[in-house]
Specification:
- The complex is a heterodimer of chains A (116) and B (277).
- Chain A has 116 residues and is mostly helical.
- Chain A has five helices and no strands.
- The termini of chain A are far apart.
- The longest helix of chain B has 20 residues, at 3-22.
- With 277 residues, chain B is mainly α.
- In chain B, strands 6-5-7 form a three-stranded mixed β-sheet.
- Chain B contains eleven helices and seven strands.
- Chain B is globular.
- The chains are: A mainly alpha (116), B mainly alpha (277).
- The interface between A and B is medium-sized, with 17 and 16 residues.
């Protein structure tokens, strides 16, 4: 009986956790740069050249002069949150629309990218 | 609004609806060839059978030297043994498959009108097995189906991909595969087309993305030496990369995808098995 309840609880817990696609909580100490460079997070380097990053991809443009391109940081944030809202053909993942980052990670990432 | 203002809009609307119906598989393939010709005018599309290697001469040279003495020779010896092992009825796969299994891989996947569905080469193998007293193998299993088809496909080396889409049922399956090809999937929101049409030749990190044309000509591949990967197992891998759970090898929607996908390589020579990074 106990086991039955326990396994029921486990299944329920698994169901609650399984949207593995939802962003995992930010690890303390993860910087905006970490988020931009790391595969399980932003992984911006997969497609964009970024100063200080090795082996960048070429699908997207180099991320530099960002303040000149986006004087308003909020506009940059909107592009990172969902680039398909600006260009439906864009290959760029809609990070916030699809919950790939937590709000805290997203804020750190936007600060880092805006500083490039 | 008056009638005159409406008429051109109505006409254009009708035209927009009518145009896609005019395009068939061959028009799709030719449009793909033209797209890559425009994008990479200096490239010989015959080299697309080498996938991403076509975009990097050094890597292509390295590949060709690896292929002189491939690291998976022992696996291919096992594959040939498996191919020659009779089934429970006493018959071999060569007895069961069309033309003894020789020069047939380019015809697959084919649309079987009697069955009303796409039949992959792997399904033809399983049909042989079940008709000869054996259990069907799991699609994508590298140790059974993967290994057997690794040998079977060598019997079609040099055969040109020759996919046919004839009749409304076959066209429907092709269109379903095409839809899957262009449909965005997963948390990262990529379609097959995002990377293998629009991104082909570009890099994701240090990896060059291969073009759709030529992609189906050389499966299974041995990755990093002896790790056998079938085409539909690779679909699974792509799904994982875009954080999508997706189907499993042998699913009808993937068979239809393979049907569309293979059509895009029509006319290109096949080779099995090959090395990939």
């Amino acid at each position: 009986m106990h086991i039955k309840h326990l396994s029921g609880a486990l299944v329920l817990a698994a169901c609650l956790v399984t949207p593995a696609l939802a962003a995992e909580p930010a690890k303390p100490g993860l910087t905006g740069k970490d988020i931009a460079f790391q595969l399980p997070k932003g992984n911006c380097l997969a497609c964009h050249a970024i100063a200080g990053g090795e082996q960048p991809g070429t699908l997207g443009p180099e991320l530099k002069d960002m303040k000149a391109r986006f004087p308003d940081k909020k506009e940059l944030a909107a592009h990172i949150a969902d680039q398909t809202a600006f260009n439906p053909y864009s290959a760029m993942p809609p990070f916030m629309k699809h919950g790939a980052l937590t709000q805290e990670e997203f804020d750190k990432l936007v600060d880092f990218i805006h500083g490039l | 609004m008056n009638k005159i203002a409406y008429t051109p809009a109505l006409f254009c609307g009708l035209l927009a609806v009518a145009l896609p119906a005019l395009a068939g598989p061959e028009e799709d393939r030719q449009a793909m060839v033209k797209y890559f010709k425009d994008a990479y005018p200096k490239m010989d599309q015959a080299n697309f059978i080498y996938g991403a290697l076509a975009f990097n001469q050094d890597a292509l040279n390295q590949y060709k030297s690896i292929m002189e003495f491939p690291p998976y020779v022992e696996e291919m010896e096992k594959a040939e043994k498996l191919w020659k092992t009779p089934m429970k009825s006493g018959k071999t796969y060569a007895d069961c498959l069309p033309n003894g299994g020789k020069m047939i891989a380019g015809d697959y996947p084919l649309f079987d009108n009697a069955k009303g569905k796409v039949v992959t080469l792997e399904m033809a193998v399983n049909d042989c097995r079940t008709a000869n007293g054996e259990e069907a193998w799991k699609y994508g299993d590298p140790k059974t189906m993967g290994l057997l088809t690794a040998h079977l496909r060598t019997l079609s080396d040099g055969m040109k991909v020759n996919i046919k889409v004839e009749g409304p049922a076959a066209t429907k399956a092709y269109e379903d595969g095409k839809k899957t090809w262009y449909q965005r999937k997963g948390q990262l929101n990529f379609s097959c087309a995002s990377c293998h049409i629009y991104g082909a030749g570009d890099k994701v990190r240090s990896e060059i993305l291969s073009p759709v044309i030529g992609q189906t000509t050389h499966w299974p591949v041995f990755r990093a030496g002896t790790n056998l990967v079938t085409l539909q197992t690779r679909y699974k891998g792509c799904n994982g990369s875009v954080r999508h759970v997706g189907e499993d090898p042998g699913h009808e929607s993937w068979n239809n995808l393979e049907y569309y996908h293979s059509y895009m390589s029509n006319g290109l020579p096949m080779q099995a098995s090959v090395f990939r990074k």
